Amino acid sequence: MLKLTLQKLATESGVSASHLGRVEKGERSLSVNVLRKIIKPLKFSEDELLALFGYPPLLKSSGRLTPSDVQKAIEEFTKMRNSIDQLLNIFKLKG
């Protein structure tokens, strides 16, 4: 299990501890930008995070995105954000 304090996550990600605390409490939504900043300190790749929520990897083997890939990525990130918001609400209710 990864032992990472909120302060250490804030330091390593560049996202303020107060913002992360508000996200944790369900007072703020987790943006894709913030999510991208925290996945590395949490030891996740973007593809692993997408897989965690049941989404396919975004990049093709060429490493390039087509316009339809970008549109699909926007849709998938929107779904992912909604899933994360739902998880945060569940944690908030249990906490």
Automatic annotation (TrEMBL):
Lineage, top-rank taxon, reads: Bacteria
The UniProt entry, under Gene3D superfamilies, shows:
lambda repressor-like DNA-binding domains (1.10.260.40)
Which molecular function term from Gene Ontology is one that the record holds? DNA binding
Q: Which InterPro entries match?
A: Cro/C1-type_HTH, Lambda_DNA-bd_dom_sf
Pfam families per the UniProt record, alphabetical: HTH_3
Q: Which SUPFAM superfamilies is this protein grouped with? A: lambda repressor-like DNA-binding domains
Give residue ranges for domain HTH cro/C1-type: 2-49
Give the protein's recorded name: HTH cro/C1-type domain-containing protein
